[in-house]
C-alpha cells in the first residue's frame, strides 16, 4: 500500500515537473526555409507576442552545406535564414527587437555590419556583438534574435 502511494506520488510529481518544463502557450516555429536544427532545439519558440529565434549559421536550408567563404556571404545567408523563421511565424525583420551576433573574428565586424544593416530600416534592433573562440561547423558568424508583434 505504501509502495502504491509512493508510485502515485512520484507519477504526480513527474507530471507536474513536465508541465512546468513546457509552459502553456509556447510553441515551436519551424520552416524548411531555414536549416533544420543541428541538435535538441527549435528554430524558434513563439511565446505570446514574442518569437525567440535560435542562432542561425550560414547553412543552405536545402543542402545543409555551409554557404560562402567570406563574412559578407556568410552574414547574408544567416540573415536570410533568420528571415525565413520570422516569416514562418508571420513576422519580418521589422519585428526584430534584439539580436546577438557571434563572430569568430571581431576584425570582420565592419563587413558583417554592412550586410547586417541592409536587413533593417531606420530603427534597427538592439544588438550585442561578441567574438567567440569557435562556432558550430567552424563558420565565421552566428546570429540569434528576439522579435515581437
Give an overview in words:
This protein has helices spanning 2-21, 71-88, 109-117, and strands spanning 26-29, 44-47, 50-56, 96-103, 126-131, 141-148. The protein has 149 residues and is of the alpha+beta class. It has a 6-stranded mixed β-sheet, with helices on one face. Strand 4 (96-103), helix 3 and strand 5 form a beta-alpha-beta unit. The radius of gyration is 19 Å and the shape is globular. Mean pLDDT is 89; it is low at 6-20.
Note the topology.
Blueprint: H1 2-21, E1 26-29, E2 44-47, E3 50-56, H2 71-88, E4 96-103, H3 109-117, E5 126-131, E6 141-148
Parallel strand pairs: 4-5
Antiparallel strand pairs: 1-2, 2-3, 3-6, 4-6
Helix pairs in contact: 2-3
**What's the average pLDDT?**
89
Q: Are there runs of 5+ residues with pLDDT below 50, and where?
A: 6-20
Number of helices: 3
Query: What spatial order of strands do you see in the largest sheet?
Result: 1-2-3-6-4-5
The amount of beta strand, in percent, is 15-25%
* Oligomer class: single chain
Counting DSSP E segments of at least 2 residues, the number of strands comes to 6
Rg result: 19 Å
What is the N-to-C order of secondary-structure elements (H for helix, E for strand)? HEEEHEHEE
The largest β sheet comes out as: 6 strands, mixed
Measure the end-to-end span. 53 Å
Structural class: alpha+beta
Overall form: globular
Fraction of residues in H or I helices: 25-40%
Brief descriptors of the model:
globular, 3 helices, 6-stranded mixed sheet, alpha+beta, 149 residues, 32% helix
